[in-house]
Amino acid sequence: MTRALPPVRGTLTELRPLADLTWLRVGGPADVFFQPADEADLAAFLRGLDPAVTVFPMGVGSNLIVRDGGIRAVVIRLGRGFNGIAVEGGQVVAGAAALDAHVARRAAEAGLDLTFLRTIPGSIGGAVRMNAGCYGSYVADHLVSVRAVTRAGDVVTVPAADLKLAYRQSELPEGWVIVEATFRAEAGDPAALEARMADQIAKRDATQPTKDRSAGSTFRNPVGHSSTGRADDSHALKAWKVIDDAGMRGAMRGGAQMSPMHSNFLINTGQATAADLEGLGEDVRKRVFQASGITLEWEIMRVGEPAAK
């Protein structure tokens, strides 16, 4: 297939297995895996790519199940050329491949408060796409704009308002690749910001299975969220609570388990397939609906095809 693809300065790999690139360590191969050398390489590739070919931008795989049959697409994964972090006045400009935790720490060192990013797994591109948030703060509260390469290969700057950020979602056209994001942040004392992040890490490690293979929260909290993406904690039901009430804490299917430590975390105990993980998630959704009438929505993205039978 690579013979029909535009020439690149980066790396193109056919049938590249993706399991080792996801936090859950499952999934089949991408038809083609592209690691662009830089923004110009990415833009030229997309400009020359047949419009009929599907493109799937992939981050660090922290919130992703790739099905066992793999992905019938060109998977694009940004690397070192896209992970820069710069502080400009009261703003932080971060490459899409920069890890959320690194951005939070770099901002804190400069006396800027993006501490909510510290415990969010993944990279900035994914955080923007999912309007990631915790501790009452969301990407929507801080995002100024993103720089992206369109499916046609044009480089554009998109104001945050145009992304229509909502709870765990955004509106970005199919095949567009975010390459950079600009955030505004309030000033703070670096030492105090660092202490806050240390406290957040301690609380996370005490309540979440951070040493297991998981992909973060499996399901969205079912109700109590406004269209801005800000949680209304006084009214929100918690996904873990309705899962507990349905008796699914610790439930298993094959090598997949709902964590006994935090029932909204789906974990690979060692030998799970993508089918095990997704199947267990669907078991949980069914049992929760039977118990409470609530339909849980996946927070983990599931992509690709099931294994051939």
Structure characteristics:
309 residues, alpha+beta, Uridine Diphospho-n-acetylenolpyruvylglucosamine Reductase, domain 2, Uridine Diphospho-n-acetylenolpyruvylglucosamine Reductase, domain 3, Uridine Diphospho-n-acetylenolpyruvylglucosamine Reductase, domain 1, 3 domains, 5-stranded antiparallel sheet, 4-stranded mixed sheet, 19 strands, 24% helix
Shape: globular
The rounded Rg comes to 20 Å
Described by strand count, sense and barrel closure, the largest sheet is: 5 strands, antiparallel
Sheet-strand content, in percent, reads: 25-35%
Number of domains: 3
Distance between the termini: 24 Å
What does this protein look like?
- By secondary structure, this protein is an alpha+beta fold.
- The protein has three domains: 2-80, Uridine Diphospho-n-acetylenolpyruvylglucosamine Reductase, domain 2 (2-Layer Sandwich); 81-192, 2-Layer Sandwich (Uridine Diphospho-n-acetylenolpyruvylglucosamine Reductase, domain 3), CATH 3.30.465; 212-303, UDP-N-acetylenolpyruvoylglucosamine reductase, C-terminal domain (Uridine Diphospho-n-acetylenolpyruvylglucosamine Reductase, domain 1).
- The chain is built from seven helices and 19 strands.
- It has helices spanning 39-48, 100-109, 124-129, 139-142, 190-207, 239-245, 274-292; strands spanning 11-17, 29-35, 55-58, 64-66, 71-77, 85-88, 91-95, 112-113, 133-134, 137-138, 143-149, 155-159, 177-184, 186-187, 213-217, 252-253, 256-258, 265-268, 301-303.
- The strands form six sheets. Strands 6-7-13-11-12 form a five-stranded antiparallel β-sheet. Strands 1-2-5-3 form a four-stranded mixed β-sheet, with no helix packed on it. It has a four-stranded antiparallel β-sheet with strand order 15-18-17-16.
- β16 and β17 form a beta hairpin.
- The longest helix has 19 residues, at 274-292.
